[in-house]
Specification:
By secondary structure, the protein is α/β, with parallel strands linked by helices. It is 30% helix and 20% strand. The chain has two domains: 12-175 and 322-440, FAD/NAD(P)-binding domain; 180-312, no CATH class. The structure holds flavin-adenine dinucleotide. The site of flavin-adenine dinucleotide has 36 residues, from helix 1, helix 2, strand 6 and helix 11.
Length: 446
Amino acid sequence: MSVFEEAKNIPVLAETDVLVVGGGPAGLSAALASAREGVDTILMERFGFLGGNLTQAMVESLVWYRHEGTVEAGGIGRELEEFAAAYGGTYPDPESTGRLLDADMFKCAADELIVQSGVRPLFHCYAVGAIIVDGLIRGVITESKSGRQAVLAKTVIDATGDADIAAFSGAPFTKEPAGELMCVTTGFGVSGVDTVSFREHIADQPGKIGDWASLTMKGEEELFSAYFTDVFEKARQDGVIPEDSPLEGFWHAITDAGEVTGLNVVRVFDVDSTNVWDLTRAEIEGRRQALAAIEALRRYQPGFENAKLRTFGSSVGTRESRKIVGRYNLTGYDVKNQAQFEDTIGIFPEFLDAYGIVIIPTTGRYFQVPYGVMVPKEVDNLLVAGRCVAGDQVSHSATRQMMCCAVTGQGAGAAAAVAVKNSTTTGTVDLAMVQRRLEKQGVRIK
Ligand SMILES: Cc1cc2nc3c(=O)[nH]c(=O)nc-3n(C[C@H](O)[C@H](O)[C@H](O)COP(=O)(O)OP(=O)(O)OC[C@H]3O[C@@H](n4cnc5c(N)ncnc54)[C@H](O)[C@@H]3O)c2cc1C
């Protein structure tokens, strides 16, 4: 069923050179990269803070993969981590040589970075449509407390995670059926943990990657993992949680105040995050699972006897939804075989984590990330960065990682700015110049 919406003129809320929609790791990096090239940049976000999944779903484990031999792009991804550390918003990461980010402190760190950079932030503003003229995107339609308006731009970067703008534009995309998408998760944190007892238990019975990953690289299954090894299995066996409860997963930081944060144990399946009914069910089911998880932890996890709910992430976290069909569609073969591309805009270590496949980059192997994965078909002056870039499921298990989202974000931001400055489109932009600008910005592209 459908209804006719009457055509009407709407006010223009703002005009800019580069509009970035979505303030997650990809959008944040895109906006910073664009502003650093000296073009006017707006970063639009539907919520009142930046960070995307990192803050909304408390995904604090930005670099849990990092080991001595890991080779990375550097660039803005690394800067986000270092800026958060200087801001006092990180913890030691027990799984890696990197740091865990404090989700709430990262909101403040990201505010500061954006304000310092000259990017114009626009919060509480939802992009709900695209303005397309002769195959070129000219801006987006927005909804907010200010009403229905438009933001006009010379170039748009879709960093919504769900490829919303590409979909509104009519660009082709793929999306698995809901039942085949990765599950969504409600992140939460607890207080009242006896951290001494918890730490002792971890030291005594450490989790390992092989406890949860079905396919790992030889030797990597023994690496430490912040994984609750048997809590939920015991709770299922004793009927504390239902036999078919999907609870399973990880903890992130342990604070001196007796908190354990970023608990990633809730798993809600059969959710298409572009469907509001599915999202509604996921939010309610996710919170219900979180309370059941706390009950199981209180009974079976040493140190958690007096744990209680401290905080929820502000939205269920999505791992996978739409992916654009790009000028180039990355493959599992590419990410596992050190692929090289003429149009590389950065590198990412051979780090895969999804669908039970886990490869930790202990070897120094890495692949180049091609510009083509961000270029949608049929619409020009639109780039797509982050977890919705073009590729198959296995390549997604690398490109969905927040640090890889920062690589595509920075690449998109620099390319959009170069296109604006040279009065070309993002489809025809001088890629050699984009690569030079990225190297100047501190990105390793080869
Ligand atoms: C529970 C969980 C655990 C994970 N664990 C890890 C991990 O350990 N390590 C890792 O690297 N990755 C992990 N991931 C994956 C990672 O978090 C995501 O792939 C990554 O955050 C994607 O970044 P992004 O910038 O593309 O999108 P997102 O982080 O989803 O950000 C998109 C942003 O766009 C905004 N937005 C969306 N639509 C609109 C719109 N129409 N208008 C305006 N704004 C909009 C959103 O509010 C959001 O801020 C995990 C994900 C989940 C859910």
